[in-house]
Every structure is written in C-alpha cells, then in structure tokens.
Amino acid sequence: MTLLCKCLGTANIQSNSNTAVQETVVTKRHDAPRYIYALGEQLIVKAPVINHTDVELFMLEALVGRMPEFFSPSADNTSGY
Questions:
Q1: Does 66 reside within a domain?
Q2: Residue 78: is it exposed, middle or buried by C-beta count within 10 angstroms (0-12/13-18/19+)?
Q3: What is the C-alpha to C-alpha distance for residues 13 and 2, in angstroms, rounded to an integer?
Q4: How far apart are alpha carbons 5 and 55 in whole angstroms?
Q5: Local confidence band at 20 (pLDDT 50, 70, 90 cut-offs)
Q6: Which of 16, 28, 35, 42 is deepest in the core (most CB within 10 A)?
Q7: Whole-structure pTM value
C-alpha cells in the first residue's frame, strides 16, 4: 500500500498492478489523499492526512521562491493541517 497526498495541485494517479484503474486528483490543501493498493477489489481509495502539515508545503514552495496558493499574510495559514 502507498499513501499519496497530492497536497496542492492536480495529478493523474494510477495503480501499477492495473493501469486501467486511475483517478485525476485536484486539490487545494491536503483535501484528497489516497491509498493505492497493489492487490484487491479497490486499488485507489480515499485516505486520511497522515504525518504531514502545511509546514512541508511552505518549505517546499520556499525552495523555488514561492508561497502556497492558500497563503494569506493576514490569516493563520497552518491551522487545522
């Protein structure tokens, strides 16, 4: 099993064991994590956000000189995530 959280943006994901099983995930802020299984009846299923927060998004965006799309200088940008 693989946990995928496309924290911000769009991605087409698919199962390696059955490439016909795929899904396009569009997310603005950790709102579409998925488990991708190697075997079973359902190969891609909704999952919870586990072991990461907005802090990682801020760090990754800073590496390329940007701020996350949801950033607002007047708001608490990390509450709830």
A1: no
A2: exposed
A3: 12
A4: 14
A5: very high
A6: 35
A7: 0.74
In this structure, what token pair is assigned to residue 67? 């701020």
Residue 34 region, left (φ>0) first, then alpha (ψ -120 to 50), else beta? beta
Exposed, middle or buried, 47 (CB in 10 Å: 0-12/13-18/19+)? Answer: middle
The CB density around residue 11, as the number of other CB atoms within 10 Å, is: 13
Q: How many domains does the chain have?
A: 1
**What's the domain range around 29?**
2-50
Pinpoint the alpha helices (H) of 1-81: 54-63
Give domain status of residue 42, yes or no: yes
Q: State phi, psi for 22 to the nearest 5 degrees.
A: -150, 165
Radius of gyration of the chain (CA): 15
Q: Would you tell me how many other CB atoms lie within 10 Å of the CB of residue 18?
A: 12
